[in-house]
Amino acid sequence: MNQLLNIDDKALIIKDFLPTDLFKKINKFDFSKYNKKLSKQSWQKSLFTDQYNNVTQENVEKYDDIYIKNLEKEKFDDYLLKEIADIVFLNPYIPTNRKKTRLIINYYEYKKYAGINWHNDGSHTLSFSLYIHDLWDENWGGETLIDTGRGLPLVSYPHSNTMLIIKNDIPHRVCPVVVDKKRKVLQGRIHYYE
Predict the structure, then answer these.
(1) Contact, 10 vs 170, CB < 8 A?
(2) Which residues, given as ranges, of the chain have pLDDT below 70?
(3) Quick one: which of 87, 118, 156, 165 is 20 to 30 A from 145 by CA?
(4) Where are the domains of the chain?
């Protein structure tokens, strides 16, 4: 696990987040047993339309709440997801107190032309994206742009087994995937209780 970049304590990129054996398991994991939803059915319209109401992004397939931990209670269907959550909690770069934290993990799958417009993640303290697809070429799109407040966004490419962590009030967007490849992401939301 290597911290690559810390942007003014707004965003963090960690390479080789999971041990290789665990990454291989989650990379091949079958999420079809979970309830699939489409982003256009459950997200606010501004995440996939422009100011003129034109659709700018294709659907993101999402499988919500595949792992939930709220304070001391956990809910999961597969021990593999708990193993990954445990690594999140033990990560030296993410300050967590197991007894005062809510963690929700979803699975998102971006196909060709799928992305998310500019937004922030509201009430969550931190959000993370753990990329679980195979190797990714930087020309395939799917990069995350992060508003640094300096006029130019930071670009984070969705390289395999890399985790991108963003604080809740930082605007960011996911650029559309431009090839017939799946951008596979474990999307986490962390909320700290006082």
Answers:
(1) yes
(2) 3-5, 7, 42, 95-99, 194
(3) 87
(4) 2-49+56-192
CB 121 within 8 A of CB 168: yes
Other C-beta atoms lying within 10 Å of the C-beta of residue 98: 12
What pLDDT, on the 0 to 100 scale, is given for residue 7?
65
What integer pLDDT is reported at residue 97 of this predicted model? 63
182 with 112: CB under 8 angstroms? no
What integer pLDDT is reported at residue 188 of this predicted model? 92
Sequence-ordered alpha helix ranges (H) in the chain: 20-27, 39-42, 79-90
Total residues found in the chain within this entry: 194
Task: State the Cα–Cα distance between residues 74 and 103, nearest whole angstrom.
Answer: 9
131, 9, 146, 138: CA torsion to nearest 10: -40
